[in-house]
Amino acid sequence: MAIPVIDFSKLDGKERAQTMAQIANGCQEWGFFQLVNHGIPVELLERVKKVSSECYKLREEAFKKSNPIQLLNKLEDQKVEEDAIKRLDDVDWEDVFFLQDDNEWPSNPPEFKETMKEYRRELKKLAEKVMEVMDENLGLEKGCIKNVFSGNGEHEPFFGTKVSHYPPCPRLDLVNGLRAHTDAGGVILLFQDDQVGGLQILKDGQWIDVQPMANAIVINTGDQIEVLSNGRYKSVWHRVLATSNGNRRSIASFYNPSLKATIAPATPKEEVHVLYPKFVFGDYMDVYVKQKFLPKEPRFKAVAAG
Predict the structure, then answer these.
(1) What DSSP letter does each residue of 165-224 carry, written as one string?
(2) CA distance 165 to 178
(3) Alpha-carbon torsion 192, 217, 102, 177, what sign?
(4) Domain assignments of the chain as residue spans, ordered by start
(5) Which H/E stretch holds residue 35?
(6) 36: helix, coil or strand?
(7) One GO molecular-function annotation for this sequence (predicted)?
(8) Greatest CA separation found in the chain?
(9) Which residues of 187-204 are buried (b: 16+ CB within 10 A; e: fewer)?
(10) Helix H segments across the chain?
C-alpha cells in the first residue's frame, strides 16, 4: 500500500475535477499525500538538497556529542544482558534546527540563507494553494482557512521550517528516529530524502512507508485542520524509523495559525453538529508541547476546559 501521488499541475486543466477529488481523498482517507508537478523548480530543490547536506557536514561533529549518542553509548557501556537494555523511548535520533523569519540562520555554507529564503517563499505560496483546494473541497469560502489562521487578517500566520537529518544509527533496536506523533498546526509540506526512507504513517492500524520520490512534496494535515474541518480531515500519526545506512534528509515546513488566532470548526451552515471546541491556538500549543507524543483527544478536551 502506497500513499497517493497527485499531479498538482492538472488542477489547471481538463482533469481539474478529478484532481480535486484525488486531493479530497488524500485529505480524508490518508491525511498524507505526495504532490508532483507542484510548480517549485527542480533546480531550486537541487540547491536546497546541496546546501542542507553541506550544512549538516558542518554540524556532524556536534551531533556526535549530542544527547542521543551519549545516552546510547552509556547504555552500551553498562555491559548488561542484551534483553535487559532498555530502549531510549524518550529521545529522537535526529539532528535538527529551525528556520523562521525572525530567528538566526546558519551562515555557512554561504548560499544557505539565500537558497532557503527562496525555497520558503515558494513553499508558502504552495501551502496557500493547497489550503484553497481544501476550502473548496470542504464547501468553505475561498481563503477561509488562511483567514482563520491569520485571525481574520489581524495577525501573521506562523510559517516555520524544520531542517532535520537522521544519521546512520548503530542500534536500531534501542532508539527511534522520531517518535510517533500528530502535528499540532495546519498544513505541513515536506521535502524528504529521495534515497533513504524511514517516514511511516499509521493507517487502519498498520504502519505504512511514505515512499521516497524525487522532487515530490509530501503534504500532511495537522490538528488544526482536523478541528476546522470538524473531523472530516484527520491529523495522522507518523514516525521516522532510524536506519543503519544512509543519512536521511527531511525539510518540513509548517503553515500554522498565529498563536493569537481563534480556531473552531468552520463548517457549512447545514452541518450543525460541532465535534470540536473553540480555542486560541496559543493555548493549544501550551498543551501540545507537554503532550506531543500522547493521544491527541485529551489535548482537545484540555483546551476546551481551559
Answers:
(1) EE---S-TTTEESEEEE--SSSEEEEEE-SS---EEEEETTEEEE----TT-EEEEE-HH
(2) 11
(3) negative
(4) 5-77+87-304
(5) strand 32-36
(6) strand
(7) 1-aminocyclopropane-1-carboxylate oxidase activity
(8) 65
(9) bbbbbbbeebbbbbbebe
(10) 16-25, 42-64, 67-77, 112-137, 144-149, 223-228, 281-291, 297-305
Domain at 5-77+87-304, CATH homologous superfamily = B-lactam Antibiotic, Isopenicillin N Synthase; Chain (2.60.120.330)
CA 236, distance to chain mean position in Å, is: 10
pLDDT above 80 for 61: no
Q: What is the pLDDT of residue 84?
A: 53
pLDDT level of residue 87 (50, 70, 90 thresholds): low
pLDDT score of 213: 96
Task: Note whether 167 and 96 are within 8 A (CB).
Answer: no
Rg (CA), the chain: 20
Cell numbers standing for residue 27 = 485529505
Nine-digit cell string for 89: 523511548
Query: Across residues 269-289, what is the average pLDDT?
Result: 89
The answer to whether 302 touches 285, Cβ cutoff 8 Å, is no
Is it true that the peptide bond before 109 is cis, omega within 30 degrees of 0?
yes
State the residue for C-alpha cell 500532511.
Answer: 220
- Rounded to the nearest 10°, the torsion over CA 48, 49, 51, 52 is 110
